[in-house]
Amino acid sequence: MRWRRFTRRIALATLIAMQARPALAYLELGVSVGGRQVKLAWPQATVRYSVSNAGVPGVSATDFQAAVGRAFATWEAVPTAAITYQFNGFTSALPGRDDGTSTLGFQNRPDLDRVLAATSFVTDSVSGALIESDIFFNSAFAWSVAPNGEANRFDVESIALHEIGHMSGLSHSALGETELRAGGGRLVTAAETVMFPIAYAVGSVAGRTLRADDITGITDLYPSSNPSQPSGSISGRVTKNGTPVFGAHVVAFDPVTHALVGSFTLDAQGRFAISSLPPGPRVLRVEPLDDAEIDSFFDPSRNVDIDFRVAFVDRIVVVPRGGDSGEVTIEVVPK
Amino acid sequence: MATTARELARHRETHESLRVIACVAIALLATTAREAAAQSAALGSGRIEMSAGAAWLSSQAFGSADANETTSANAPFRLFSTSSELGSAAGLDARVGVRLAGTLVVEADASYARPELRITTSSDAESATGLTAAERLQQYMIGGGATWYVPTASRVAPFVAGGAGYLRQLHDRALLVQTGRYYRFGGGVVYLLSSQSTGTLKATGIRVDLRATTFKDGVALDGDTHVAAAVAGSFLVRF
Questions:
Q1: CA–CA distance from A242 to each of A44, A236, A333 (Å)?
Q2: pLDDT at position B20, please?
Q3: Pick from B67, B176, B221: which is nearest to A320 by CB?
Q4: What digits encode the pLDDT tens for the residues A27-82?
Q5: pTM confidence score
Q6: Contacts of A135 (CB under 8 A, 6+ apart)
Q7: Which domain range does residue B71 map to?
Q8: Chain B residues whose beta carbon lies within 8 Å of the beta carbon of residue A310
Q9: Is residue B36 part of a domain?
Q10: Nearest Cα residue in chain B from A230
Q11: Which end of chain B lies in a sparser environment, N or C, as judged by fewer CB atoms within 10 Å?
């Protein structure tokens, strides 16, 4: 099959249990094709998926399918985005096989002792188009599909919601706070995105709800053809002593809806952009990525600057209807 | 603490302004009452009344809002807090009226001001220094209403007035337009500088308005209606 000859698998270890991982705000995944960066997204409006017919203790294959079905439905319900998912039936295949079918299922990976689940992709190496995406749930952990969660078991629906975000093309978000654990790793204090790279505490079902950052991300990837109102964007630069800052986390707060949406400075000029935002005034806050390890997200060769203080921008930034705020320059100071 | 001090100062300033307005109103009405008995000059003839001048509008507090994240227990975790307001502003005020009958004037009015929208941040979870982010708006108010003059032969004519209209607020560089409505009610006095029954120009005078204006929608970040006090002084002509 032609696509086999011209595809490649991209492995992306994602949701981590109790370990620091740096994150990107609703960043989108991309692949390099012929020296150019191509956004990783489904070319078709409906993504078909299958579910492995093997369950784990406490979660049958049917339970698992129902839980991931609810997670798919949650993404599908975003009114500003146009992507749908369709269950194609159970399969005996396991996730991770390049068979042209996107498959979700359990795999026992005790070697990945901090990875709850992971998403991988098969892309066309010529066009960069997404062909297949598989999600495995690590059965080395205990899982639950109980409506209110279960103590000492991770919630399938919450973790599926995160992984389906990846499957749809979203990367990690940094809209979360962590604290160091005495025994190593980090514990999530709070997050305002399901795409935060570290899972909520075991037993929690707080990750079943999409937040503004997630909704903005999926909307940016798959915008509805009939939006209720035109969206706008914020763009600008972050500098320190006049020098561009790479990897600064810029968060926009909507004082009307109280929504938080973030992005990063991602080029040598310290530029950032946050798009698909509802019009209105915003408060901007910029912070260093100092809660977690940097190189899990950014290429280790990139010099992510975390030596600056958290700061607010001293002017209100306005998201116009259908346009951009105009460049916002944010000068930060070293710690 | 700085925020609290500023807010207290602002409230005190608003209350003092209102107190001054009230004193001026009482003084003018007292003057009117004294002069009404003694004077015989007409309220002013002429059917068309125009006035233009300056106005001052008090600030409107939009309350506070927290930027929250969500904990494992589905509880809010405050990343930082904000409080916001539309600052007081001076502006231009104009109206054109037609005397319908007796001392009742129906009028169209317009005003322009550049209030500052301010959002103050505080209580940051990562100890970011709080500050006040601001932007200067352009605010247009266009509406209609009526003014009823207390019948008097005095050169000083008290009145009550009310009306409603369209509110248009433009953000920085006109990037975004937000609209709403306003309702105003108040009173004041007209002091006639000159009055004649012949010629085109029937009268000139000074008009002082004191009013409460209720704003609905527009840039109100909390979505509520807000009341602002306003005082305006204008030069009036009657034709």
A1: 44, 14, 10
A2: 43
A3: B176
A4: 667 777 777 777 888 988 899 999 999 999 999 999 999 999 999 999 999 999 99
A5: 0.86
A6: A95, A103, A104, A105, A117, A118, A119, A120, A160, A163, A164, A166, A167
A7: 45-238
A8: 124, 126-128
A9: no
A10: B176
A11: N
- The domain that contains B153 carries what CATH number? 2.40.160.20
Tell me: the pLDDT tens digits for B155-178? 999 999 999 999 999 998 999 999
Q: Tell me which residue in A260, A313, A320 faces B67 most closely, judged by beta carbons.
A: A260
Q: Is B224 on the interface with A (CB under 8 A)?
A: no
Q: Identify all chain B residues contacting A328, using CB atoms and an 8 Å cutoff.
A: none
Q: Are A138 and A108 in contact (CB under 8 A)?
A: yes
The mean-pLDDT minimum among A89-103, A285-299, B45-59 falls in A285-299
Q: Please count the structural domains in chain B.
A: 1
3-state secondary structure A280-325: EEEEEEEECCCCCCCCCCCCCCCCCCCCCCCEECCECEEECCCCEE
Residue B19 lies in a domain: no
> Which residues in chain B have their CB less than 8 angstroms from residue A285's CB?
67, 79-80, 121, 124, 128
Q: Is residue B125 part of a domain?
A: yes
In a domain, B122, yes or no: yes
- Residue A323 touches chain B, beta carbons under 8 Å: yes
Indicate the length of chain B as a whole number. Answer: 239
pLDDT band for position A113 (50/70/90)?
confident
Q: Would an 8 Å CB–CB cutoff place B82 in contact with chain A?
A: yes
What pLDDT is recorded for position B101?
79
